[in-house]
Amino acid sequence: MQRIAQGHRLRAGRVSESNRVYLITAVCHKRQAIFSSFENGRAFVHAIRDVEQAITLCYVVMPDHIHWLLQLAEDADLSQAVQKAKSLTTMALRKSWSGPIWQRGFHDHALRKEEDIQAFARYVVANPLRAGLVKSLRYYSLWDAIWL
Question: What are the residue boundaries of the Transposase IS200-like domain, all occurrences included (predicted)?
């Protein structure tokens, strides 16, 4: 099956629910390590601060992808919120990066009411540890959580 068809399947059942918590994963174009530079990674951090449609609960910027745990605002659209973050990041990196920044689409997981949001946040921010990028999160600066 072609990639386009698979990406379409990811979007087929997507529904935006106000106040719902979502875990978003977006991947850099061709898995390039665009965010291995601290400055490039901060472009995404600044972008999500400007997305009015979402309240950021936590995030981690990995070298070739991001994880973003957010709560969707009232009457907001999930796809539009993610697209705005990706667009703002792309605009910020235009001077330092030539070529596409993001792969098309994104993966989302809507957390069920019984799922532990803080456990998801711990999972998200522990990504650099599991990837072997650092031995302690104190040595990785491209993450944050509202609980800290």
Answer: 17-127
What does the pLDDT look like over 96-143, one tens digit per residue? Answer: 998 999 999 999 999 988 788 999 999 999 999 999 999 999 999 999
Number of other residues whose CB lies within 10 A of the CB of residue 114: 5
26 bridge partner residues: 66
Higher-pLDDT residue of 34 and 16 is 34
Residue (of 49, 44, 66) closest to 127 by Cα position: 66
Half-sphere exposure of 90 (CA within 13 A, CB side): 16
What ranges do the domains of the chain cover? 3-143
Q: What is the Cα–Cα distance from 29 to 26, expressed in whole angstroms? A: 10
CATH 3.40.50.1820 fits 3-143, yes or no: no
